[in-house]
Amino acid sequence: MKKVLVLGAGQLARMMDLAGSPLNMDVKAFDVRTNNVVHPITPEHKYGGLAQGIANADVITAEFEHVAHDVLAQCQASGKLLPNSQAIKVGGDRRLEKALLESSNVANAKHIIIENKADFERALTQLELPLIFKSALEGYDGKGQWRLKSAEQAEAIWQEMSAFIDAATSSVPQGIVAEKMVPFDREVSLVGARNIHGEISVYPLTENHHTNGVLSVSVAAPINDALQAQAGQAFKKMAEALDYVGILAIEFFQVGEQLLVNEIAPRVHNSGHWTQQGADTCQFENHLRAISGLPLGSTQLIRPTAMVNILGEDTLPVETLAIPSLSVHWYAKEKRAGRKMGHINISGDTELMLAQRLTQLAQLLDKQAFPDLAEFASKYLAKVS
Amino acid sequence: MKKVLVLGAGQLARMMDLAGSPLNMDVKAFDVRTNNVVHPITPEHKYGGLAQGIANADVITAEFEHVAHDVLAQCQASGKLLPNSQAIKVGGDRRLEKALLESSNVANAKHIIIENKADFERALTQLELPLIFKSALEGYDGKGQWRLKSAEQAEAIWQEMSAFIDAATSSVPQGIVAEKMVPFDREVSLVGARNIHGEISVYPLTENHHTNGVLSVSVAAPINDALQAQAGQAFKKMAEALDYVGILAIEFFQVGEQLLVNEIAPRVHNSGHWTQQGADTCQFENHLRAISGLPLGSTQLIRPTAMVNILGEDTLPVETLAIPSLSVHWYAKEKRAGRKMGHINISGDTELMLAQRLTQLAQLLDKQAFPDLAEFASKYLAKVS
Questions:
Q1: What is the CATH number of the domain that holds A289?
Q2: Domain assignment of residue A294, yes or no
């Protein structure tokens, strides 16, 4: 039995455990809030602290990129951490991420790193408005972001940003990346795996929709070969540059037929949850296969599949379960406004069937809890009809 | 969170837990050997004895039909047991099973219940040879069965059978059912669910192959409508007669275009494991949905899928994982000769693709551990080519 320790004890560790048990893997999770090693499905049981968790593990991985650097160092020193700590750090710091994109020659939005007011002013003059400013550390799900549309906002935003930088308590200094806001056609992401032997396998590109900066819907459907190849090339360059092992997710802005990398996540990713029902091998299993030296499982799309995030709700109308090819995945978390509580996967033999089922789902769900779903489903239905 | 207690802590309870966690169900299992309630994935943690398990559960179910009658009575008295204790008892006693088949008017093999030598002699004269004798209690996987091909064997077999009956220690007297051996064309089974509201949904008929009396391969592929309807009718009659709630499996002998019931299993069933990859909703989830008052999930076949049992082995050649659309499910059990240790699910977009992958799999696996697989795969490939 392979023993896996996951840094982080949230839903991603939980779903790794559910995928790992059938593979004869014993998945434990290090809860960074309590410093306890727990079993993800029955977290009431503790298995000591980090040192013991590291000692007991055959392989260590992470479910999030904002792991404290001392924890990463301790894991890296054990020789068991995959992906390696540098790859995790790159995913957790937009400055390193941008440096990697540049050195790997992967297309991304024009940007400037801001450490002081002079940098900020340089960004205002050298990048075209509108601009988006993103904190270098801890910036996902719409937190630590500012949008500047006209020069009059500049001083107010600078005040907010510099207060944000000063308030940071991390051992690594906080910073800001300024980017030209890309007038993109859509957001897509690529989730793929690279294993210990350098074998790479990527899933089909997924189209993502955000509501208030948080992913709400991802759709995986047959994709244009050229676009898929372009994304695959970016994946290969970055995964190889990082000597990456495990699942890596890349978010892109699509502008016409070009993909610009928005950000990467060195872990299994919300936009890959559809793989649990829509792909031969789900991302959680492929992550475990990759870090355990096993062959990767096929990443082929079985049939068009969408993932709908459940935010801030801990129940659904029971009739939703009567929709064919629909699976609900709850994370057993305490209800809190806006929190990712679970997700729904829904498939159809064709995109039309998927769009019809999404429409049916949107009609059953609470409009306040799923504010954009009905509109999304109706547009999608119109597109594929 | 719905709390489910499963009577029995084997692989079926384990797979119910893996299917139940995403549905926000807390699945515990009562280990009948140790009288402890455990968590199926981390059985090192105990949660008290049966009384406590019953008190803590919202619903109680079983993973096997040979539950001691006092345990069943205790669970039934709680008002939480589904399926009901009578349905479980029928599945655990061939005499009751035959009585149900007769009273529900469901076709089955001609038979006589044997309690003494006079019954035995009546069976010899009233049923045509060859005969098969099956113990009424605890008779699955080829144990407690005798085949009589010629009259000269009769006395020796009677000696063995009467010793077997006398050796029984169950609170219910052991008995024997004599059946005319049916010259069947193939064995098929139907797995289906009936929920609290009487809603029924059945999976496609599966073709089953046994090796030394133990299931080795099941194949689910598109099936002839008339045959499927015939099986569905038998399911409906029996499930309604038993006021059954949960997954019920029915094994049939197919003779020409007729299906004769061989036996029933009042639980999730080995011949339904393919549903984990090959169906919209797996049998474990549908069992939990059924007993929890939820709508049933679709039982539609996604694509042709086969299940291969892993018997007495605790590793597989690593290259098997490189076959596309292949999933391994280990049960975390200690290795023992002939023991069900896990299973492999393998799918193809077409039956031809499935047969090719099965052939590839058979070539990689150890011939002694999977003695009939290569021959099965080669015949299947010839049939669908």
A1: 3.30.470.20
A2: yes
Cα(A296)–Cα(B149) distance, integer angstroms: 51
Q: Does the beta-carbon distance from A347 to B322 stay under 8 Å?
A: no
Residue of A2, A16, A24 for testing the chain B interface, max B β-carbons within 10 Å:
A24
Candidate from B17, B289, B329 with C-beta closest to A321? B289
Nearest to A9 by CA among A26, A35, A36, A29: A29
Q: In the block, which residue shows the tokens 């792909």?
A: A279
Which one, of A288, A261, A284, lies nearest residue A273 by Cα? A284
Range of the domain at A239: 186-384
Q: Is the pLDDT of residue B143 over 50?
A: yes
pTM to 2 decimal places: 0.96
Sequence-distant (6+) residues with CB within 8 A of A33 are none
Residue B107 has pLDDT above 80, yes or no: yes
Res B14: pLDDT: 98
Which of B25, B26, B42 best probes binding to A when mutated, by most A CB atoms within 10 angstroms?
Answer: B42
Residues B118 and B14 in one domain: no
Same domain, B355 and B374: yes
Of B21, B285, B294, Cβ closest to residue A41: B21
Question: Do B236 and B359 have their domain in common?
Answer: yes
**For chain A, which ranges sit under pLDDT 70?**
139-143
Same domain? B210 vs B126 = no
Does an H or E element contain A262, and which?
strand A258-265
Same domain for A329 and A203: yes
Q: Do A297 and B45 touch (CB under 8 A)?
A: no
